[in-house]
Write a structure and sequence with these properties.
The complex is a heterodimer. By secondary structure, chain A is mainly beta. Chain A has strands at about 5, 10-15, 20-25, 30-40, 40-50, 55, 65, 75-80, 85-95, 100-105, 105-110. Chain A is built from no helices and eleven strands. Chain A is globular, with a radius of gyration of 13 Å. By secondary structure, chain B is mostly beta strands. Chain B is globular, with a radius of gyration of 13 Å. Classes of the chains: A mainly beta, B mainly beta. At the A-B interface, strand 4, strand 5, strand 9 and strand 10 of A face strand 5, strand 6 and strand 11 of B.
Chain lengths: ~110, ~110
Amino acid sequence: NAGVTQTPKFQVLKTGQSMTLQCAQDMNHEYMSWYRQDPGMGLRLIHYSVGAGITDQGEVPNGYNVSRSTTEDFPLRLLSAAPSQTSVYFCASSRGAVQPQHFGDGTRLSIL
Amino acid sequence: GNSVTQMEGPVTLSEEAFLTINCTYTATGYPSLFWYVQYPGEGLQLLLKATKADDKGSNKGFEATYRKETTSFHLEKGSVQVSDSAVYFCALSAGANSKLTFGKGITLSVRP
């Protein structure tokens, strides 16, 4: 089983560039989320979705956009990359409320 | 709002030592509690969970008991192995949208 698949695994961007981090899950989970992991900060929620067509902001949404056109996919868009967005990004999915989340392997993003 | 506080790290132990990692939480309502583990270069994996007061979650020799009176969910293992070296995150989920709130994580290193 693939579970949650994130692409790319690594990416280097220049300040001001835009890009999309891809996330796909094959478990038919309704809930999907994006987190960023920074040293000493734990994981912080960027955006989440409770189903196709429904998204909402998390703790640190500024500078990021999401959409959920299908149950399987939940891409994260950086509109104009900034050095402060250098981080490791994790996508996660779960079957429903208070269910354990399944995480992808992460995307390590560096903004120069 | 919801929050999770973990003890400061890192923690270094010898193989077969006893492990305790403290976790306390603040939440409205009745949260579900989780421990996630992150091995080097990987995403987070669910280690164990508890969904109501006095529940004990257990997996791979690790245990944690949901203590509502002390708002705690401390992780314990009687005899750690080198393969337990990882980052451990305490987390809670509260409310209808399955949003996880993470602690900052603690790095455990086990030496032979």
